[in-house]
Amino acid sequence: MAVRSMGRTNEYGPLKVFFAIAQTLLIVVCSPIIIHERDQPMVKYRSWTINLAACLAITIRSIIDACTSMDGWVDYETLPFTFWLKNICLTITVCSYGPIYLRHYYLLRLPVLQTQLFNYETMVDPEKYKKLSRSLVRTKFLSSEAGAWMFFAINFIPLMGIGIYYLLNANFDEMAIGIPNPADLYMVKMCVSVIFISSLFVIWYGAGAPKENFHIMKQFYVVTVSSLITATVLLIGVTSGDLHTNRLCFAIAFVMTFLTLSVDILMPLQYLVTNQRYNTVVLSSSKKSKAHKRKYMGIHAHKMAGSNGVILSSETNVNDYSSTGSDSSSKISTQTSKKSGTYTIPKIIDSPPLRDAFCQYLAREFSLENLLFLETVRLYKEKVRQVPTIANVKQISDKIMTEFIAPNSVNEVNLPKKDVNKLTAALHTALGNALNVELALTVFDDAARHIEEMLALNHLRKFQASPLFENIVSV
Asked: I want to staple 368 with a disulfide (CB 3.0 to 4.6 A). Which of 42, 66, 104, 114 is the partner?
């Protein structure tokens, strides 16, 4: 997405002005939509803040480039400032590729690590669990927007520092008429190098990415390849030694920049407009209609004591998904469920084949922490029944609060504030002077019920329509 201005010449000036206006309109119209739809996966999981900053930066550069390409639009005394601003914008844009791809790479790594929490040996071994927790904390940060901005700073600071050195020693008259100079050569070579390295990385990890990420990876491939072509055209223009070739190459690069930006912005919006959204649905605490809940949940008829769980103990295997305190009839077989056509989250969890498939599905959806929370609550209840003491309840509940409820926790689940406040108050009451065992057993029920509702609303239909589900019920 690199562009180059040719000062004090209008040979391709009108063409640049036309595409600069089109690019500006695209940004003005689409930026509010991107901000509004920032929780949609095709936007969110591309590091939408950095991506939007890069689009704004390259648009500013295009506007300046178009203005400096028209005779009399920019004063000669203002040219140095325009060159500084254009090169800063270019560096911002180029330094955005790597962070966006790195963030997405670690985002794909996160469910792989979360899945290991279902491993019994890992959960009961303090050293293995501690090592896994550290990896989860690190991976969650690197897969966040904050992690992406850290990668951006690591890229931008040294590259911009070198660019400042060249600009401080630049001959702006040579830059204005297109004569090859060290500052231009550095910026173009830097573009080619950074984008080429980014393209190698995205091809490397994209080859092993789940097919559910196809839409995002396709966009990454198209944007990276077109940007690399643009940067290569610029390099040809800078090193050609011919003024006409130089201007032609930079005009072609200008148009390519517009096309690349269009793909980068319009491709994710396409899935929003046509309702062909990327396969992940982000959990939301926004209010749903009661009718919608009744249609897709079918949960409230199940007692939470029979569908929720507990922290791992040495007597409890992680693969035991039968409802606590229920008889064998509560283990819903696949054939019975298929005939009745009734599938709820508790029934899916109680059926080991469906549970495994649902776990795999949620891992692809980046929502595995919700199933982890339900299983942890289930195991918490078993542990409290085994050792009903204040110390035991406090130790296990603190672990749940730290890992699932606390803000920015490693497996944070999306709970309404009122549920968190109610949970905190219930824990305080249960852990009073004398342990209230019944209250301690049900303290996480409301939170678990909310997570089940969100799983049913956001994932149940899509899971039932997935090949993972079909392969199980067709047996």
From this structure: 114
- Model pLDDT for residues 218-234, shown as the tens digit of each residue: 889 999 999 999 999 99
CA distance 58 to 288: 39
Q: Cα–Cα distance between 198 and 98 in angstroms, integer?
A: 5
**CA atoms of 138 and 418, how far apart (whole Å):** 29
Of 356, 353, 344, 259, nearest in space to 304 by CA: 344
What is the reported pTM? 0.73
Q: Judge contact between 304 and 442, C-beta under 8 A.
A: yes
Adjacent-strand bridge partners of 380 = 310
Distance between CA atoms of 46 and 59, rounded to whole angstroms?
Answer: 19
Any idea which residue has 């040979």 for tokens?
A: 11
Each domain of the chain, given as residue ranges in start order, spans: 13-273, 294-473
In contact, 404 and 376? CB cutoff 8 Å: yes
Query: In 3D, which of 427, 417, 436 has the Cα closest to residue 397?
Result: 427
Q: Which CATH superfamily is domain 294-473 in?
A: Regulator of G-protein Signalling 4, domain 2 (1.10.167.10)
Strand partners, 310: 380
Report CA 156 to chain centroid distance, whole Å: 21
Q: What is the CATH architecture assignment of 13-273?
A: Up-down Bundle (1.20)
pLDDT of residue 124: 65
Instruction: Spell out, as residue ranges, where the chain has pLDDT lower than 50.
Output: 1-9, 275-340
